[in-house]
User: Which sequence fits this backbone?
């Protein structure tokens, strides 16, 4: 797959689910195209192709032959490629489309209102008595006004229908064009050539108000739909707006303000309190607290100091810092998040397959039903030609499959966007749907349930020794060690205000411990074997060591001048909120398992604290995937939660992989769901979001299907006025998008 190129490009002219199916079918005909996913809500196609076999000109030509227009990369540059935060040509195109729709709707509405009024009052006797115009003159005025509507704002329907007809295809535009065109042409013939239709002319049977109103109502529906669709991309817009336009850097011996697009890796950047971090980097000077909520979803500011990473787009709260840029442009965390969200919003969920299958044959079936409706009413039902024609028009208009095409993508766009704004990055729509179906959640212990780094939990000094002196001696010695347990002891001393001193001699004995001298004191630190090696009596601490071991802690013994003086308990502590999150997941009905390489005793102790009843201990990283396979063989859908790197085999094997607390490219590319912060509550939120999003999709599909299932028979039975059908059709699309937008109020 390395030789394949993936692009997301706008497509002009799509209006319904049938359009989506047609564009996808056209692109798949081209040799070298691996996959295509057309999104009606964004009016874009995401396609993967082999540049050696297929070129963009050929792809654009195939789309053009299908009756649509593919905008090529010469016109499209995405923000994720530039990282500039500027509006893209794609966004500009969407805005231009919206503005054109708005002007067309206002023009159409301005003419439709008087057409409707005149059509209604002209039927009253008093109108003709007081009107200076004859009925023939009134009809000609209505003809002129309706002609302006049908062929100015309404010409889009006829142009699209004609382009499709040339390729023996049809879509929603065909239904609208045939419906309004039939009403308009019939009425025009009555007015211009009354001798051709004498009965209709004598009874003044014209339907200019029908043609005008249907056109205006459908334009109104599209306008409302376009406005609502713009709101579905709010999360992307918010992410695009995170980065500032300029940055202050050290160059040529002084400070200089430059555009963010001009920054390069290794630039030294200055950020003052209240300013945004322009790009990713590592702090070289200063300390501060940074608000990362818009990127990670973490509500509290995070303390940062020299040597720690900063993320572009986050807000520097209260301290001045200098940092060295490590990633700029398309390589920043924000740019990667935007790219990931755009890809997810352009992807298709398996649940959409049914809608796609129906859409592929929907329009021809509807046209057939409409024709049969006309023939039955006219030849069998005995209705006049005009009445049968009205039923034909009603069927054509009510059946437009716009809502069907919008049902899935709008919900996915809002759901993935909402997740991103809370630090939950969902790879694609398929991941979202699979997450909704999981039954068992396997949690890696280290870094997922626990903090992932050891810390001192107990410091018990035996009688006869001074705590401060013992802590200073052991911490000073451990500070010379590179072992994680040694760093934990040194950090514990610093937190308790104990100053470290220089060590006169130091010896590291791997697998046992440390020994050294500080002044006149000889210090030995380590396990039981270390104490035995130096003939230190440990019986006095056996009970303490056993208790610490039972609690899942590592006992470290300390001897001063040959006498045991203290026992230190060190453990990888449980993260705040882990226990509550696990309890919530269990309450939601999931089987929760913990998997770890720790021994059984330590694993059971941690599991008990976290509220996990099922434990798999003593497992090497490569063995974790085998346990996931075993669960899958038992018929369970499994989600694996880990750190995205050490647990890679198990994450890859799981039905849904969730990478905790990682904004790395590795996690974003491989995990189904990436959590930007390392809180198990993010797992709860991600699963709840997936369930709520899939529920919205099911609701949308239900209403889209039920609308046509009920509407088409009602129209065919002659119980639906075409103007009412047009209003209902327009509102069906708006209701589907509005239902998806309700997701934005979902409490994460």
Assistant:
């Amino acid at each position: 797959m390395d030789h394949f190129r993936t692009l997301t490009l706008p497509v002009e002219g799509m209006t319904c689910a049938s359009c989506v199916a047609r564009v996808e079918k056209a692109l798949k005909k081209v040799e070298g195209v691996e996959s295509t996913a057309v999104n009606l809500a964004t009016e874009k196609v995401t396609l993967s192709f082999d540049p050696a076999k297929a070129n963009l000109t050929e792809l654009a030509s195939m789309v053009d032959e299908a009756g649509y227009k593919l905008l090529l990369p010469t016109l499209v540059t995405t923000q994720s490629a530039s990282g500039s935060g500027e509006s893209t040509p794609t966004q500009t195109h969407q805005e231009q489309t919206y503005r054109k729709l708005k002007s067309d709707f206002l023009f159409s509405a301005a003419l439709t209102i008087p057409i409707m009024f005149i059509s209604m009052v002209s039927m009253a006797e008093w109108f003709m008595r007081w009107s200076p115009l004859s009925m023939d003159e009134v009809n000609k005025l209505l003809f002129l006004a309706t002609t302006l509507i049908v062929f100015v704002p309404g010409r889009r329907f006829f142009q699209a229908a004609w382009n499709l007809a040339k390729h023996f295809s049809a879509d929603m535009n065909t239904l609208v064009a045939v419906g309004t065109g039939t009403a308009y042409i019939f009425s025009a013939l009555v007015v211009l050539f009354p001798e051709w239709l004498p009965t209709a002319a004598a009874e003044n049977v014209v339907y200019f108000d029908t043609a005008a109103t249907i056109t205006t109502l459908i334009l109104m529906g599209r306008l409302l739909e376009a406005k609502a669709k713009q709101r579905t991309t709010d999360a992307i817009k918010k992410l695009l707006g995170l980065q500032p336009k300029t940055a202050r850097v050290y160059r040529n011996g002084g400070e200089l303000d430059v555009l963010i697009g001009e920054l390069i890796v290794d630039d030294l950047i200055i950020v003052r309190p209240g300013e945004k971090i322009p790009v990713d980097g590592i702090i070289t000077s200063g300390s501060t607290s940074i608000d990362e909520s818009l990127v990670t979803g973490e509500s509290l500011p995070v303390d940062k100091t020299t040597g720690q990473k900063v993320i572009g787009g986050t807000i520097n709260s209260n301290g001045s810092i200098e940092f060295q840029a490590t990633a700029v442009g398309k390589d920043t965390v924000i740019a990667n998040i935007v790219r990931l969200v755009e890809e997810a919003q352009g992807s298709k969920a398996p649940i959409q397959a049914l809608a796609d299958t129906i859409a592929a044959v929907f329009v021809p079936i509807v046209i057939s039903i409409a024709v049969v409706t006309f023939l039955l009413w006219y030849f069998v039902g005995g209705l006049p030609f005009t009445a049968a024609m009205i039923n034909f028009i009603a069927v054509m208009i009510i059946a437009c499959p716009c809502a069907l095409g919008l049902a899935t993508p709008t919900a996915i766009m809002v759901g993935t966007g909402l997740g991103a704004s809370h630090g939950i990055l969902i790879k694609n729509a398929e991941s979202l749907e699979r997450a909704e179906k999981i039954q068992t959640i396997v949690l890696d212990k280290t870094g997922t349930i626990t903090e992932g780094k050891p810390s001192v939990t107990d410091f018990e000094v035996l009688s006869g020794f001074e705590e401060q002196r013992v802590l200073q001696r052991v911490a000073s010695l451990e500070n010379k060690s590179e072992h994680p347990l040694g760093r934990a002891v040194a950090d514990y001393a610093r937190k308790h205000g104990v100053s470290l001193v220089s060590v006169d001699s130091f010896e590291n004995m791997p697998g046992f411990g440390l020994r050294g001298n500080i002044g006149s004191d000889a210090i030995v630190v380590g396990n039981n074997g270390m104490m035995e090696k130096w003939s230190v009596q440990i019986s006095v601490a056996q009970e303490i060591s056993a208790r610490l071991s039972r609690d899942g802690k590592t006992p470290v013994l300390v001897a001063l001048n040959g006498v045991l003086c203290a026992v230190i308990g060190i453990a990888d502590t449980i993260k705040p909120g882990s226990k509550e999150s696990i309890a919530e997941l269990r309450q939601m009905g999931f089987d929760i398992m913990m998997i770890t390489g720790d021994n059984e005793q330590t694993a059971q102790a941690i599991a008990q604290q976290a509220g996990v009843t099922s434990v798999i201990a003593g497992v090497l990283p490569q063995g974790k995937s085998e346990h996931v396979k075993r669960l899958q063989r038992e018929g369970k859908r499994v989600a694996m939660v880990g750190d995205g790197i050490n647990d890679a085999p198990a994450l890859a094997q799981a039905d849904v992989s969730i990478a905790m607390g990682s904004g790395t490219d590795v996690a974003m590319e491989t995990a189904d769901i990436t959590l930007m912060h390392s809180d198990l509550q993010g797992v709860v939120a991600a699963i709840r979001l997936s369930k709520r999003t899939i529920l919205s999709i099911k609701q949308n599909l239900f209403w889209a299907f039920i609308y046509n299932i009920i509407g088409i028979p009602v129209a065919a039975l002659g119980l639906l006025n075409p103007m009412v059908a047009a209003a209902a059709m327009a509102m069906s699309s708006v209701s589907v998008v509005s239902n998806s937008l309700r997701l934005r109020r979902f409490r994460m």
Remarks:
- The CA atoms of residues 14 and 170 lie 12 Å apart.
- Residues 75-90 have pLDDT under 50 and may be disordered.
- The first strand starts at residue 5 and ends at 12.
- The chain is about 50% helix and 20% strand.
